[in-house]
Known about the structure:
The chain is α+β, with helices and mostly antiparallel strands.
Amino acid sequence: MRGRSAVFAILLIAAVLSAGCIEGGNFVYSRGKTLSPGDSLSYAFSGPANLTVKVSSNVPVEVKIVGDGGVLKDFGETRRVDTVVQLPKGKWKVIIKNPGNGRAVLDIEIKGR
Length: 113
């Protein structure tokens, strides 16, 4: 029985890693994530924290950090974001939106510390 549990755990980890997306707590990692025209992604974080935001895309996407009080940081339409943002205390979301007509292929790494 113990061997089966270990095999199951290994298969589960392999499935998550092969899908190219890990999300949990204050960490998001996704490679090759596709975003159709007009669609958006939202990732929640808690502050205070230093939030490392790395997003790269084959087409311009909108990237913003928003909270209850409004927009904390708006990166505009861009193909690449690589920065650290200080999040004040509270609940925050990193929102990535595809405003264009083509499918966006994204590599995303967001870490809160």
